[in-house]
Amino acid sequence: MAAQVIPMVRAAEAACNDHQRASFMAFLDARLNVMEQGCPMNDLGEITSTILANRADILGELALSFVHKRFGELLEQEFCPCPQCGKQLKARARHKRMVETLIGSLALERPYFYCTTCSHGFYPLDAALKLAPSSKQHDIQALEAWLAAEMPFETATEAYRRCTGNRLSTH
Predict the structure, then answer these.
(1) What span, in angstroms and rounded, lies between the C-alpha atoms of 59 and 61?
(2) What's the predicted TM-score (pTM) here?
(3) DSSP structural state of residue 85
(4) How far apart are CA 7 and CA 156, in angstroms?
(5) Going by DSSP bridges, is the β-strand pair 88-90/93-101 parallel, antiparallel, or unpaired?
(6) Which residues neighbour 99 within 8 Å (Cβ) at sequence distance 6 or greater?
(7) Contact call for residues 65 and 20 (beta carbons, < 8 A)
């Protein structure tokens, strides 16, 4: 019986992967159309400026498609054992979280679990992805710290903005 289930599981995984790929490609196609309509792209400078202006959105969507591919079961899970006491818990709700990385922002909508026995609330996806407590993730925090340590704050702020298109955190 178990041998009969394996092909069905693999087919479901392949269908999910195909859906994520198709979803990203549809997003990319729509974005390319917007980019082509919004800029004449008469020279390399205009081309690279247009791509840079859209880079974070495109790469953020790409990263999100990989999160879905690798951690899809955690995005959809309905039950989870409490990491402190082991009690089986049912998801309470789905909460949205914006996550900022050097490549772009991701909107994660993931299930929340709360154990009434030990008063512990948690998001399994956050733990699996090793997310930082703040919206700015470890890659951004490391770059900000390095820039601030290596040069005057005003220069670090400008360098960060030019390289990422974002503002350097002031705290």
Answers:
(1) 5
(2) 0.80
(3) T
(4) 53
(5) unpaired
(6) 105, 106, 107, 108, 131, 135, 137
(7) yes
Structure tokens of 71? 């951690």
| Whole-angstrom distance, CA of residue 123 vs CA of residue 98 | 14
Tens of pLDDT, residue by residue over 48-104, are 999 988 999 999 999 999 999 999 999 999 999 999 999 999 999 999 999 999 998
Calpha distance 93→109 (Å, rounded):
10
Tokens representing 6 are 């394996």
Contacts of 11 (CB under 8 A, 6+ apart): none
- The partner residues of 110 in beta bridges, in order of sequence, read 95
Question: What number of CA atoms fall less than 13 Å from residue 87's CA on the CB side?
Answer: 14
SS3 category, 123: coil
